[in-house]
Amino acid sequence: MPKNKRSRRSEPSTASAPYSLSSREKSHQQPSSDQPDLKSAGTNLIAPNTSLGQHFLKNPAVVTAIVAKAAIKPTDVVLEIGPGTGNMTVPLLQQSKHVVAIEYDNRMVREVLKRVEGTDQERKLQIIQGDAIKTRFPFFDVCVANVPYQISSALVFKLLSHRPMFRCAVMMFQEEFALRLTARPGEALYCRLSVNTQLLAKVDQLMKVGRNNFRPPPKVESRVVRIELRNPPPPVNFSEWDGMIRLLFNRKNKTLRSVLLTKPTIKMLDENRRTQKALNNGNNNMNNEFSMMEEEGVEKGAEQIIEEVVALEQWKDKRASKLDLDDFLSLLAEFNKRGIHFA
Length: 343
Ligand SMILES: C[S@@+](CC[C@H](N)C(=O)[O-])C[C@H]1O[C@@H](n2cnc3c(N)ncnc32)[C@H](O)[C@@H]1O
Fold this sequence. Notes:
The relative contact order is 0.10. This protein has 343 residues and is of the alpha/beta class. The longest helix is centred in the last third of the chain and has 20 residues, at 263-282. The protein has two domains: 17-229, Rossmann fold, CATH 3.40.50.150; 238-337, Helicase, Ruva Protein, domain 3, CATH 1.10.8.480. It is built from 13 helices and nine strands. Strand 2, helix 3 and strand 3 (98-103) form a beta-alpha-beta unit. The strands form two sheets. It has a seven-stranded mixed β-sheet with strand order 4-3-2-5-6-9-7, with helices on both faces. Strands 1-8 form a two-stranded antiparallel ribbon. It binds S-adenosylmethionine.
């Protein structure tokens, strides 16, 4: 989908011109008996606002496949982000106990409501109008989303930290974003997003979805992934972890030594060290790492400690682009042991 900036308009836009279907699109919309009827979606009456990522799924087979991958149980509460005109909302309602949908555009909110009005599904649907990133998520078992690609990253991080844990999230993303989620060390797409997501969740690639399955077609191909949070979560302070990963992936192909031994990084780590020390002194904890180091008269600055760590055999000449989760976890432990903290 387009890489436009997120639009944050105070007034959601209204349709300026009818959006009519080409005959090819019409033929795509013929539902089979076991597929959702997307014809009643009314998307042909509303001009899609592409700055809100409004590319609606028009192929009922894709909708059915996504909903099937979510393996929804009749007792489930489903969270849908960006229901649009409700193409997925209707089958989700049919299979679950309750659907909470968060939609930014009030034209879409009206459209979904219109679609279920007077049906058995009406009482099972709750729509929240607002920005999904700023909205507090309710309790849910499964999340299903075909979202504007400009909020993908914020949404993934929001889901990764959501509690209580949910069973899974089945989500459509721009192809490259989806591939970043599962990229492995040494692959070109391996990045901070890959490492952070894989630390906190298991991600599976489920299917590719071509541009022509959407109306209007986005500029890029898409993929559907399933995200399952690791339970229990890894025993790591995430802000500290992310502080280190963010630094190292700023220049992922440089050696750890050259990324960490820069003036601003040393300054920042020394400041963190002083803060940590003040906090620890405030807590009057005589057993902490600083008081032990002071007693031994071995207190060092961040620069010296970084030199020491990156000279260790396992880190010598290593680059973030080639390190895996276990490597990063032991690197962080190595620094923490010496009183260096990244947050
Ligand atoms: C790609 S369309 C998908 C519509 C529908 N789920 C489908 O598959 O046909 C994305 C939807 O997300 C909505 N949206 C955009 N930004 C949003 C945000 N920040 N929070 C919630 N919904 C948003 C758009 O208005 C649009 O209806």
